[in-house]
Specification:
Strand order of the largest sheet: 5-6-7-8
Strand content: 15-25%
Order of helices and strands: EEEHEHHHEEEEHE
Number of strands: 9
Structural class: alpha/beta
Helix content: 25-40%
Radius of gyration: 19 Å
Number of domains: 2
CATH class of the largest domain: Alpha Beta
Distance between the termini: 28 Å
CATH topology of the largest domain: Rossmann fold
CATH superfamily of the largest domain: HUPs
Amino acid sequence: MSVQLYDTYSRSVKDLTPEVGKPFRIYCCGPTVYGPAHIGNFRTFLIQDVLRRVLQVDGVDVKYVRNITDVDDKTIRESQANGISLREFTDKWTEKFHNDCNTLNIIHPNIEPSAVEHIPNQIELAQKLEAKGHAYATEDGSLYFRVSSFPEYGRLSKLNLKNIRSQSENSSGERNDADEYDRESINDFALWKSRKPEDGENYWDSPWGEGRPGWHLECSAMVEASFGGETIDLHGGG
């Protein structure tokens, strides 16, 4: 059976050719569980479910991982607005998401890691990046990815860093605080965010101080943990 997909990197349609004798590794950025998943979210999950079924019918062993993002600005803000713990709040919406997946007959992933469960992995990955010069700590106890240290940054999305506007982080849900002027570049993004009063009790110890992971770090660490450091074949989602 021939399967073709549009490849974002090359901007062209390519044949999907799974490696013989190895599972085809798919990672999907799952929902941020601060409310019900919407039709746009489920478009992604349904498309990947169809692809997974097609590959399996063709005899391909598929390892499918889809995460749950249960700690970020939105989950913390909404849990506090509802007067319940982050765990209780996100468990409620995770269960709702699973029920919706069942209604749509979406097959459950082989592995479903959550961001909170993998905070130690995230800290470990951030330390590796810092040791290699790809990240740097700031005086407030935050850690940022040094975009200038990675020349390939932006090639996948065809970004020209010179044209990125200062408010770009807000479009991805990142916090752009007024006290972030100690970043080396406006393009750099948070791997670890220092504890803020509005975080309440939602913080963890780290080599840089009390805080929580940045939105960009979470999936990278969960991919590494779920696939044992092996390169994934297909990434989908946000």
